[in-house]
Task: structure prediction
Amino acid sequence: EEIELDVIAICCDFSEDSFENIADLYGIEFDENDDDDEKQQQVIDFLQSEGAYVGDSINGIVYRNF
Result:
């Protein structure tokens, strides 16, 4: 069965952003003593718990919009 690739749908379903912007978007709060690595890991853990984490990129984190 042939399936047509819908690039626009893929672009709408996934995003790439910094961990700071993702935290703001989804209301993830950090402890003031956390360093950037700990904050990024908290965002990744959150996205993984939502089944939305795809991976890291040079520019940030790739995730499925939800």
